[in-house]
Design goal:
The chain has 13 helices and 10 strands. The chain is an alpha/beta fold. The protein has a single domain, classed as Alpha-Beta Barrel (TIM Barrel), CATH 3.20.20. The strands form 2 sheets. Strands 3-4-5-6-7-8-9-10 form an 8-stranded parallel beta barrel, surrounded by 5 helices. It has a two-stranded antiparallel ribbon with strand order 1-2. It is globular.
Length: 344
């Protein structure tokens, strides 16, 4: 396992980190196997584990907390808040980036994770309703209280990363020291602005969905049927498998990328992960295994360095800064989704 410094924090993290969205009701409901996945990742040298309160609506955090018993100090533990959580329908503040919710959310995550502190606490998405100073003020208090070590953002557009940095400097707040973003061979939007901006501010970068939701795992091939338990069949709309134009384009690219991987002497999975880690601004690629076999198939990719010829071939297939599916970005301003917000 290789390690890199997380931005300018001085914290050393593995280039492959473990994401837990698929551990629990959203993926693997066998807690014993979930624990096996977590321990195998740690045994392989993974030391950054990323979760979120919204994953299986708290269940993933609970599973992770139980699995880390006796190993908490080995882990750089990261979680996130922003998405609405289940609860009393009359409670209109069960999500977002307000001080009210951030303070409540961190306490709930600490209880579920059964720990006194979180190493990296991230704001999962921007919240147009909340002044970033309000959010940074709450997060700064959590750092001073010792409940959070450092703070980060996730899926923030470049301009909002800049706004947060300037707000922190001008108002004397703790600043975001990381950005977690969507990045893969099939989703390269971050290369246009977000990755250069993160590098400019010395942020650590955590790349989520480096396999593009499973498209780069090798299990979806032209002319073949998806596995029965795959997201292509169980959650096809969210996964974009039912979107004909996107599906055909991605299936075609997978066939070409399989050839590139074969010429490089590696699996498609390792090619995809190595591509993400090749970018100078990326610190770690987040693995999102649902099964133990998924995990073992991804480990080891951090040791692979791609040749310039291979990177050129990838660029020829998917141009730098472009996406096959624009929805892979992970966040869109509300004005793009709700016409009433852009019309009088």
């Amino acid at each position: 396992m290789q390690y890199r410094t997380l931005g300018r924090t001085g914290i050393e993290v593995s280039t492959l980190s473990l994401g837990t969205m698929m551990l629990g009701a959203w993926g693997n409901t066998d807690e014993a196997e979930c624990h096996r996945i977590i321990h195998a990742a740690l045994d392989a040298g993974v030391n950054l584990v990323d979760t979120a309160d919204v994953y299986a609506f708290g269940q993933s955090e609970e599973i992770l907390g139980r699995a880390l018993k006796g190993r908490r100090d080995q882990v750089v533990l990261a979680t996130k808040a922003n998405s609405p959580m289940p609860g009393d329908a009359a409670d209109r503040n069960r999500g977002g980036n307000s001080r009210v919710w951030v303070m409540r959310a961190v306490e709930a995550s600490l209880r579920r994770l059964d720990t006194d502190y979180v190493d990296l606490y991230q704001i999962h998405r921007p919240d147009p309703r909340t002044d970033i100073d309000e959010t940074l003020g709450a997060l700064s208090d959590l750092v001073r209280q010792g409940k959070v070590r450092v703070i980060g953002s996730s899926s923030f557009p470049a301009e909002q990363i800049v706004e947060a940095q300037w707000t922190a400097e001008r108002r004397g707040r703790e600043r975001f020291v990381t950005e977690q973003l969507s990045y893969s061979i099939l989703a390269r939007h971050a290369e246009q602005a977000t990755l250069p901006t993160a590098a400019r501010y010395g942020l650590g970068v955590l790349a989520w969905s480096p396999l593009n939701g499973g498209w780069l795992s090798g299990k979806y091939r032209a002319g073949g049927e998806p596995p029965a338990d795959s997201r292509a069949l169980t959650n096809g709309d969210h996964f974009d498998f039912r979107t004909a134009g996107v599906r055909e384009r991605k299936l075609g690219l997978v066939e070409e990328l399989v050839k590139v991987a074969a010429d490089e002497g590696c699996s498609l999975i390792h090619l995809a992960l190595a591509f993400v880690l090749n970018h100078r601004a990326v610190t770690t690629a987040i693995l999102g295994p649902r099964t133990f076999e998924h995990l073992t198939g991804q480990l080891g990719a951090g040791d692979l360095t791609l040749s310039a010829e291979t990177l050129d071939r990838i660029d020829a297939l998917v141009a730098p800064g472009t996406d096959i599916n624009p929805e892979d970005v992970g966040y869109a301003p509300p004005e793009l989704l709700d016409a009433t917000l852009r019309r009088r």
